[in-house]
Amino acid sequence: MGRFTIAAKHHITVAEIYETELTDMEKAVQNYEKAADYYKGENSTSSANKCLLKVAQFSASMENYEKAIEIYEEVAKPCMDNSLLKYSVKDHFFHASVCHMCMDTVNAQIAVKSYEEQFPAFSDSRECKLVKNLLQAVEDENVDQFTDVLKDYDSISRLDPFLTTLLLRVKKQLNAEPELC
């Protein structure tokens, strides 16, 4: 009867208030998750996915990368079979790959291979090539190469602030590694 949709919209409004005015990301995440659940109850997959992507973004911002990766992969899988949504799959896998890089580069390499097997079009995307080049730079422990790869990509396609923040975290880890030894 649409009541779940109304409840979902209210939760989104509350989440936006927590996000913008109160800057309490944990409560914003909780409300976006509830909204996504309500949208799923109404079979409104696109609205649910929109909320889930917000949850993934905030989770990654709060360094809860496992949850973010899980959501990006969950949202990407049904999109692969939909001709209208298949173009967004590379973005979801790209975000998940960057989250993997923030945690562990070995798992990131495994994840990228998995994404390429699941969705062969991801292999040819600029985003996949960027992740592979960044992983190579991390493996070589070459901060300059890492920076150059990002500059080359950013000169054509601007990275959003969220991805920039995550990639800076990876770069800081790269800078910190030699000091630990």
TrEMBL record:
Family annotation (Pfam families): SNAP
Protein's organism: Elysia marginata
GO biological process: intracellular protein transport; SNARE complex disassembly
Localization annotation: Membrane
Topological relation to the membrane, as annotated: Peripheral membrane protein
The protein's name: Alpha-soluble NSF attachment protein
Physiological role: Required for vesicular transport between the endoplasmic reticulum and the Golgi apparatus.
InterPro entries in alphabetical order: NSF_attach, TPR-like_helical_dom_sf
GO molecular function list: soluble NSF attachment protein activity; syntaxin binding
